[in-house]
Write a structure and sequence with these properties.
Shape: globular
Order of helices and strands: EHEHEHEEHEEHEHHEEH
Strand content: 15-25%
Helix content: 25-40%
CATH architecture: Alpha-Beta Complex
Number of strands: 10
Largest sheet: 7 strands, mixed
Structural class: alpha/beta
Number of domains: 1
CATH superfamily: Spore Coat Polysaccharide Biosynthesis Protein SpsA, Chain A
Distance between the termini: 40 Å
């Protein structure tokens, strides 16, 4: 999807990107997810070669072939790293991946206290996606353009993969989620945030689902600039068998139960 470059005012440059991808038994999707992130990182390198990219795959309680897939990428590409955890919790996995990338939990804003983020945090961007999703090639380029224009967080859009998905369910989802700029939706599969804002807002809470919504609410309550865009749309699994109890798959399953009223 073509997009015009945004202006690059001084003082907002990013020199490091940390990508975090939590995975729980995702061997059916993980290879395509990591390949898409790799291509996005390659595109950013061609566009801004000085930006360092660090990708962390968080294997949370995986008992399938996900570890082998992630290990192959880590062995072949120095930008990829693997972290194994046993949380079975999306928020905890995302936070652990960000911490493993060098954004320490000890630097999170102390509740009720005056706090100044470390200098590097304003130049570090945290890009989050899911192991059942495929980001577009311009995913990192576009997020850094928004960051350079002053955004503290970027909410991207998603599109369910029609492959194997009930066409009627897909139609119903598309009807309720038109693709547009300034959309109202929050998806952990397509979310970027400046590290300084992330730390000031308290980071990802250790919730099994809606960890992304909670963080965005905290960002907005602290008057950080949150931008929503359809210019970096992510293709995500249309399955209704949810990994998170109240996540995207659970929402699709609920949506599938609501039949449209009959038309006379």
């Amino acid at each position: 999807m073509a997009a015009l470059a945004l202006p690059l005012p001084r003082g907002h440059s990013i020199d490091r990107v940390a990508v975090v991808i939590p995975a729980h038994n995702e061997d059916a999707h993980l290879d395509r997810a990591l390949l898409a992130v790799q291509r996005a990182a390659d595109a950013l390198h061609r566009h801004q070669g000085a930006v360092d990219v660090h990708v962390t795959v968080v294997l949370d309680s995986c008992t399938d072939g996900s570890a082998g897939i992630a290990a192959r990428y880590a062995a072949a590409d120095r930008r990829f790293h693997v972290l194994e955890t046993g949380f079975r919790n999306a928020g905890a996995s995302r936070e652990a991946g960000i911490r493993a990338a060098g954004i320490g939990a000890a630097r999170l804003r102390p509740p009720g206290k005056r706090w100044t983020p470390p200098p590097w945090a304003g130049r570090t961007w945290l890009a989050n996606t899911d192991a059942d999703s495929q980001v577009p090639q311009n995913w990192l380029i576009r997020q850094l353009e928004f960051a350079a224009a002053g955004a503290d967080a970027v909410l991207g859009s998603v599109e369910p993969d029609p492959d194997g998905m009930d066409p009627e369910l897909l139609r119903r989802w598309l009807e309720r989620h038109p693709f547009e700029e300034d959309h109202p939706h929050i998806y952990g599969a397509n979310f970027g945030v400046r590290a300084s804002a992330y730390l000031a807002a308290g980071g990802f809470p250790k919730l099994a689902s809606h960890e992304d919504r909670t963080l965005v609410q905290n960002l907005r309550s602290r008057a950080f600039t949150v931008t929503a865009t359809d210019s970096i749309r992510v293709l995500t699994s249309g399955r209704t068998h949810a990994r998170a109890p109240h996540g995207f798959g659970a929402y699709l399953r609920t949506l599938g139960r609501h039949r449209a009223p009959a038309v006379d």
